[in-house]
Amino acid sequence: MITRVPVGLYAITDSQLTPAASLIAAVEAAIRGGTVMVQYREKLAPMAERLAQARNLQSVCAGANVPLLINDDIGLAKRVGAAGVHLGQTDGSVAQARHLLGDNAIIGITCHADLALAEAATTAGADYLAFGRFFHSSTKPNAPPAKTDILAQAKCFGKPITAIGGITSQNGEQLIRAGADLLAVVGGLFKSSLEATEQNAKTFQRLFASHHPLYSHSK
């Protein structure tokens, strides 16, 4: 396993749940609660706004020693000095990201529920493999469903495994037990109050502490 990819809660921002006015405070609350990695996901805002938000997030995450990844945009990740990038199947290649971001960048790849995609991502040099959706997701309602057994099957690739899609503190335990090293969470983490967001993160942290054998070594 690549040790620079942490084990634990992976917070993903959302323009509805973490709008510009509360984005930084929401991420800070998630980090206080135990988030180990953050992904900035914003597809609709103008580039100037995305650049400003990503820079502010990078400052917060770097200060907390928490990696910030940028969703889909390799160039933006480079401009703000982010720790890496998360790429979908049509968002550029691992080779492109590695060339621009360097050998130490964290590059994650969406694999849906397809082990062939995971094998290709591993061969290309991805640092973690993301599978899902595992439950109904309001963020990605049309994403293809995945079964939990794919998490264990994907261990053969020797990469950290991320689970995504409708994950909450109530259903997260089964994914960790099935083999997830990271739980990528949006709606199940960010709530209307910062206190609730922080408490949700702490709940996820306790799930990893109780059910993932490597969690204590990742902090």
Write up this protein.
The protein has about 220 residues and is an alpha/beta fold. It has a single domain (about 10-215), classed as TIM Barrel. About 40% of the residues lie in helices and about 15% in strands. The protein has an 8-stranded parallel barrel with strand order 1-2-3-4-5-6-7-8, surrounded by 7 helices. The mean pLDDT is about 95.
CATH level 1 class label:
Alpha Beta
Number of helices: 9
CATH superfamily: Aldolase class I
- N-to-C CA distance: 15 Å
Tell the overall outline: globular
Unreliable stretches: none
Q: What does the main sheet amount to?
A: 8 strands, parallel, barrel
| Overall pLDDT confidence | 93
Brief synopsis:
39% of the residues lie in helices and 16% in strands. With 219 residues, the protein is an alpha/beta fold.
Secondary-structure map:
Blueprint: E1 8-12, H1 23-32, E2 37-40, H2 47-63, E3 68-71, H3 74-80, E4 84-87, H4 94-101, E5 106-110, H5 115-124, E6 128-131, H6 149-153, E7 161-164, H7 172-178, E8 182-185, H8 194-211, H9 215-218
Parallel strand pairs: 1-2, 1-8, 2-3, 3-4, 4-5, 5-6, 6-7, 7-8
